[in-house]
Specification:
Layout (H helix, E strand, L loop, with lengths): L1 E3 H9 L1 H9 L7 E2 H21 L6 H15 L4 E2 L6 H19 L6 E12 L5 E12 L2 E8 L13 H14 L4 E7 L4 E7 L4 H19 L23 H7 L3 H6 L1 H37 L3 E3 L4 E3 L11 H10 L3 H4 L4 H7 L7 H9 L19
Parallel strand pairs: 1-5, 2-3, 6-7
Antiparallel strand pairs: 4-5, 5-6, 7-8, 9-10
Bound molecules: iron/sulfur cluster.
Iron/sulfur cluster binds next to helix 2.
Length: 386
């Protein structure tokens, strides 16, 4: 089984997106401007180092005009912008990244180029193979360097840095070249900064990746690819076919008269209308409740009678515990915890889909459980269009 790092990270980001991209082989329907600009910048830096292999140092002007030519050639109508900026702003940002990089690293002779846009393909274990593309591999004083260009506008701290991708590439380098000393280099182009990490071994990542692949394989077996809504959805190329957004695209493409007749559109509006009325009634109910309590206090009664119903007003005191952990410890120490703690069935249901619970226990639980579909409906405000 062959896996690419991008497949694994896509699955983590959103299993449904993974399904669309890798299992159904559906091509993205649109592309976000950030990744479009990132591709053009990568191409320019690849050209810079490829020409250097032929003893040609590109001038900055040459490189910028190559970038702009590629920009013009590849630009099409399906490029979308999420933030409130123009496409031209992004083109200029890419130019700036190339310019800063060029001026910082000129004459580009810090290490010997070993490979550019190198496709790697190697076994993680006897079952799984991994492939990916390394932006640049270089070598200096016997140390191999894995270079990766990032055009993200977020500069991570060392604690936040996700080493996974480059650590896999480092393992690949050990396989490919028998490299012993390997340094990982991230170029954060928007900040004109690089982050370097050098470890004795990157083997720690192998098991992590194998676990993630097994998770994907289990999802494939069980057909479970839930759509995972996150801030990244704004940048997702699959929105028009994602269950979270496709209805929005459908009604946006309809004429106003057609939209007014559309079942889903009408049902949501009716549901909202009813929710509003319920909220109004709830507010009135709360008001009456307060008045009933006042009445009960003032008149020293606990039962208040109407025509067919009566209301009971009960006054009693309860305790509030400020620190749950201390309470837990105390009860445990005194052997009373079991008596007052409750089993969390929601957490248990979730855990059944992971490896937290050993399979022999899962089998025993299966004998006494049944799967039920839970359906919840929430009303939510639409995001204001930019
Ligand atoms: S829009 Fe969001 S939930 Fe839908 S496929 Fe893309 S990332 Fe997943």
């Amino acid at each position: 089984m062959i896996y690419s790092y991008s497949a694994i990270s896509t699955f983590e980001n959103c299993p449904f997106k993974f399904k669309l991209a890798y299992m159904d082989k559906i091509k993205p329907l649109r592309k976000n401007i950030e990744s479009f600009m990132g591709s053009r910048v990568h191409e320019a830096l690849e050209k810079l180092y490829r020409d250097k292999l032929f003893a040609k140092i590109d001038s900055l002007e040459e490189l910028i005009s190559f970038y702009n030519e590629r920009w013009e050639k590849e630009m099409h109508g399906n490029i979308f912008v999420v933030k409130g900026y123009e496409i031209e702003n992004y083109r200029k940002m890419g130019e700036m990244y190339i310019r800063d990089y060029y001026n910082t690293y000129k004459p580009f002779d810090d290490g010997r180029i070993i490979a550019l846009e190198k496709r790697i393909f190697f076994p993680l274990n006897e079952k799984y193979w991994i492939n990916g593309i390394i932006d640049r591999i270089s070598e200096k004083d016997g140390v191999y360097e894995v270079h990766d260009y990032k055009t993200s506008l977020y500069f991570p701290s060392l604690n936040e840095l996700d080493e996974t991708q480059l650590a896999i590439y480092a393992i690949a380098l050990q396989n490919l070249y028998g490299a012993e000393e390997i340094e990982l280099v991230w170029h954060y182009l928007a900040f004109n900064k690089e982050i370097r990490v050098r470890k004795k071994s990157y083997e720690y990542i192998r098991e992590e990746i194998i676990n993630k692949i097994e998770e994907i394989e289990n999802a494939k077996k069980n057909g479970k690819f839930p759509a995972k809504e996150s801030a990244l959805c704004d940048y997702c190329e699959y929105q028009p076919i994602c269950p979270l957004f496709k209805h929005h695209y459908k009604i946006n493409e309809m004429h106003v008269e057609e939209v007014a007749e559309e079942d889903g559109f009408n049902l949501v509006n009716k549901y909202w209308e009813i929710e509003r009325k319920i909220d109004e009634l709830e507010a009135i109910k709360e008001e009456i409740k307060k008045k009933l309590i006042d009445y009960a206090r003032k008149n020293e009664v606990e039962h208040i009678y109407g025509s067919d119903k009566m209301v009971k007003v009960k006054f009693y005191k309860n305790f509030y515990f400020r620190d749950g952990e201390i309470v837990k410890k105390l009860l445990k120490k005194e052997g009373l915890y079991e008596r007052f703690s409750r089993l969390d069935f929601v957490a248990l249901s979730k855990a059944l889909e992971s490896d937290v619970i050993p399979s022999y226990i899962k089998e025993k639980l299966k004998e006494i459980m049944e799967e039920r579909e839970i359906i919840r409906i929430y009303l939510r405000d639409l995001k204001r269009e930019e």
